[in-house]
Each structure stands twice: as C-alpha cells, then as structure tokens.
Design brief:
Blueprint lengths: L4 E5 L7 E3 L14 E5 L58 E4 L1 H7 L6 E5 L9 H14 L4 E6 L2 H13 L2 E7 L5 H9 L3 E5 L3 H13 L5 E3 L5 H7 L1 H9 L7 E5 L4 H15 L8 E7 L4 H8 L11 H14 L18 H10 L3 E5 L1 H13 L6 H15 L9 E5 L7 H9 L3 H7 L14 E3 L3 H10 L2
Parallel strand pairs: 5-13, 6-7, 6-9, 7-8, 8-14, 10-11, 10-13, 11-12
Antiparallel strand pairs: 1-2, 1-3, 4-5
The structure holds ligand F0G.
C-alpha cells in the first residue's frame, strides 16, 4: 500500500513529496507543514459511507486485536497509509459517543435534537488524543522507532505514555513545570514514561522536543500534532459524528483551539470525503480560543490573515511571534490544556477555516468554567478546555451567527476527571493545587514509583536527564 500513500508539503508553491516511511514533521525545502496524501485511484475506496456499517457486526473484542473494534481503524480505508495491518497499534480507541443533549439545548436556546456533544473523553486515556496516537504509533512501528516523545499540556503525554507502554517503546514526555493538571501528570507517571518537568511553558517544551527530535542521532520520534500521522487518526472524530447521524453532516462543528491539530484534521477529513464524493455537504467550523491563549483569534479576526490558496502571510505570523518574544508574552488560562501561544498547526488551521467557511472566537475563563459546570450539571461532564466549545456556541448564538434551527456538534475533547481540581475549586473555592504545593513530601517507595524529573529549559540539561532515564 505504501506507494499509493505519500507525504507532501502543504505549500502549493513547493509541493515537495516524501515517501510514507520518511520520518519528518516539516518540509526539508521550505520548512512548511506536511500532509499525508493518497492516490485514491489506486486504493479500494468504498462507494458510500454506509459501507462502514457492516464493521459493527464484525467488531469482535479488543483482546482479539480486531481493527473493527477501534473507532479509528474501522474507517481504515480512509487512512490507508500503513503497509500491513500488522503494523497497526490499537487498543480499542475512539469508541466514543455522540450525545443528543436536549436538556443543554433547552438551556442554550437551541431546538431540541439540534445540539450534539461528541464525548472524546471516553477514550482509553480520557481524551481525544488517542485517536491521533494510534495512527502516529502505527507509523512509528512502520519505521522501527524505539523512543517516542512529545511536549504536552497533559493529555498528549497521558496518551503517549499509555501507547508507548503497550507498544513497548520508550516514552519521554516534556511538560511545563506546574502547568498541567495533577491527574494528567499521574497518568504519564503511572504508564511509565520518563517525565521531564521543564522550567517553562508548553511552547518552550515543544521548541525543545522538536530541537532534540530534529537531530537523528538522538533517535527520538516526535508525537505532537505537528506529526501529520496524528492528524490522520483525528480525522476519525468526523467519521464517527457522521456515522451517528446516518451519514448526514451537522450544520456546525465547534471545537476548542490549542495547538490546532483537531480543526486541521476535521477539515482534512471533509476535504477528502468531498473529493471522493462521499459527502455532499461540508459543515461550518468554529474554533474557540481561551482569551488568555488567543493566537488564532488574533491572527484570523484582528490581523485578518487568510489561507489565500496556501499563500498566507507567513511573515505576519513570524512578526507576531517575534513581538511575543520581545514582550515575554506567556499565555494564561484556567483551561490549561489549551494554554498555548504558538500553535504549530496554524497554517493548517487557516486552511481548515477556509475550506469549512469557519469562524474563530475567544471566550473568557469565567465563560469556560460556567459552561463546564452546565454541561456536567445536565449529564456527564468534560474538562475546562473542552467546555470552550459550548461557551463558544453560546456566543455564536447570541451573535446570531448560528441559528437555533441549525444542528451543532460540540467536541468535548477531554474527560471531566482530567481536571477535578478546577471542578472542586469552582464548587468550593478550595484550590487543591495550592494545598498540594504546601503538603509535606515523603520519598516515594513503591516498587514501580516513577518520579518526574525537574529540568531547566536548557538543551544539555535535558539531554543529560534523558540519558539518566532507562
Ligand atoms: N482540548 C483538550 C482537552 C486538549 O488536551 C487539547 C490539546 C485541546 C483541546 C486542543 O486541541 O491542539 O488539537 O487544538 N492538548 C494538547 C496536549 C496540546 O498536549 O495535551 P488542538
């Protein structure tokens, strides 16, 4: 299958291609992002999406390793980059639910039946990241990677650590010290990843892990969403929403925006489905930033940057980032999962907004917390970042950009228990994080204790800490 799938630079003036088993995250020629591309004429593409329905009958169980059990791989004809089915690393990810949230619809002033919540927190590691990780780990296995790494605001690291353990690869995660929720940190430790707590934020961690992965001598396979294989897996969130609606797209998809991998993946899914004639309609897209981490909002709404057929104003983005460096700008939001100032997938997000006729909004931390509580009060909940999608819906309804008669799917990206500190603080005023910081520490003495390693944001210190690991 390899020859009908390849990697290609997203810059139309470059368009450089690379073999599917090349390990890179940007184009060698112009440093732009890469897409996974397919020569569909040489691949067995279903004639209609209804084809996938028979997979429910053959799903088997996770222990049988059935691909049909996975909510990602039961759509494998739509992400056929793997060489053989034996390469696929799956644990039954993507078995998530699209809930018709009528109580919430009533509260929000949407017609009952029209508000849908896509619960990606029901994934094995508790967030949507598992959709992307299964695909990136499949590629890692195809190319024989031994050590995998990511920077993270918590969910990517939890997911990477889980898949690394199951695939018997060494997982290394870079997290900003004090920047991620304790529940997410506990997952990385429990699943046995080497956990580096870098003195810096997510952007600093990503810069470092990319720098280290760029040197092949370090043998580090990068698992952040700048890796185009992650995007392939995350397309499946759109397939599942379609599946739950008898293959009818909703009018709107609303998603929180952090590193902008999800929105990029959603548009790629629809670009391909449309080109293959598998859908007629493409939903509109709304990407919701937190006000304290609003780079996409700034770029799209204030600077009015557009994809422009791939000839977007890259200089303006560079200048904006240089300006952030100059004033020492650091993003800040209670929704720590999306506390990101320099989203790596920004160009792909501009493409997504163009193709899905999208809008971008920013919502305050208070709006996020109130909508998180509302979602939880009326059913099962989500973490703060996820609720940005519902807060964004409220804003777009108020602005009459979305009408109560339109169908809307809000993506709830992470499980409620991912950040119970935020929940407890909202309801009681007690900041458990502050309490933890004051608590006396004892030496961990469990036979499998896996302590996080504090490291300065310095290349040599990080390399030394990585060597100290197994
Ligand atoms: N929601 C949650 C719960 C997340 O964890 C993230 C990203 C996002 C939304 C934003 O998604 O990057 O596709 O725009 N978390 C990353 C992490 C950055 O490291 O776990 P995006």
């Amino acid at each position: 299958m390899t020859e009908s799938a390849f990697q290609q630079c997203i810059n139309p003036d470059c368009g450089a291609t690379y073999p599917i088993d090349a390990v890179k995250v940007t184009c060698d020629k112009c440093q732009n992002l890469l897409d996974i591309r397919y020569d569909w004429s040489r691949l067995p593409v279903p004639r209609s999406l209804g084809f996938f329905e028979h997979r429910w009958a053959t799903k088997g169980t996770a222990t049988q390793g059935s691909l049909d059990f996975s909510g990602v791989w039961r759509f494998r004809e739509l992400l056929p980059f793997y060489r053989s089915e034996d390469d696929i690393v799956t644990i039954g990810e993507g078995r998530t639910v699209l809930q018709q949230a009528d109580l919430l619809a009533r509260q929000m002033g949407v017609k009952p039946g029209n508000l849908l919540l896509q619960y990606e927190g029901l994934n094995p590691s508790g967030s949507f990241k598992d959709n992307g990780m299964t695909a990136a780990f499949t590629h890692a296995r195809m190319v024989g990677a031994r050590k995998v790494a990511c920077a993270s605001t918590g969910n990517t690291s939890a997911s990477l650590a889980m898949f690394a353990s199951l695939a018997e690869l060494r997982g290394v995660v870079f997290i900003g010290s004090g920047k991620i929720s304790i529940a997410k940190l506990s997952q990385a430790l429990d699943y046995g990843a080497l956990t580096l707590q870098i003195q810096g934020d997510f952007d600093a961690c990503l810069r470092r892990v990319r720098q280290i992965a760029r040197d092949p001598a370090n043998g580090l396979y990068l698992m952040n969403s700048v890796n185009p294989f992650r995007i392939e897996g995350q397309k499946s969130i759109m397939y599942r929403i379609l599946e739950a609606r008898d293959w009818n797209p909703p009018d709107w998809i609303i998603v929180p925006g952090g590193n902008l991998g999800n929105c990029s993946a959603f548009a790629k899914a629809y670009m391909e489905l449309k080109a293959l004639g598998l859908v007629k309609k493409v939903p509109r897209l709304a990407v919701i930033n937190a006000t304290g981490a609003n780079t996409l909002h700034e770029v799209f709404n204030n600077q009015k940057l557009r994809w422009n057929g791939g000839r977007y104003d890259a200089k303006a983005i560079q200048m904006m980032y240089a300006g952030m460096d100059e004033v020492g700008y650091l993003p800040h939001t209670i929704a720590s999962a999306i506390e990101i100032g320099r989203p790596v997938n920004l160009p792909k997000a501009l493409r997504a907004l163009d193709f899905m006729y999208g809008v971008v909004r920013e919502v305050t931390d208070d709006d996020i917390l109130e909508h998180r509580a509302l979602v939880a009060r009326l059913g099962f909940g989500c973490e703060p970042a996820s609720a940005a999608s519902v807060a964004g819906l409220r804003m777009l309804l108020d602005e009459k950009v979305i009408s109560p008669d339109e169908s809307v799917a809000c993506i709830l990206t992470g499980h409620e228990l991912k950040d119970s500190n935020a929940t407890v603080k909202y309801h009681t005023g007690i900041d458990l994080k502050a309490v933890q910081d004051l608590a006396p520490r004892t030496e961990p003495h469990g036979r499998m204790s896996n302590r996080p390693i504090p490291v300065e944001d310095d290349l040599n210190s990080i390399l030394r800490a990585m060597d100290g690991g197994r």
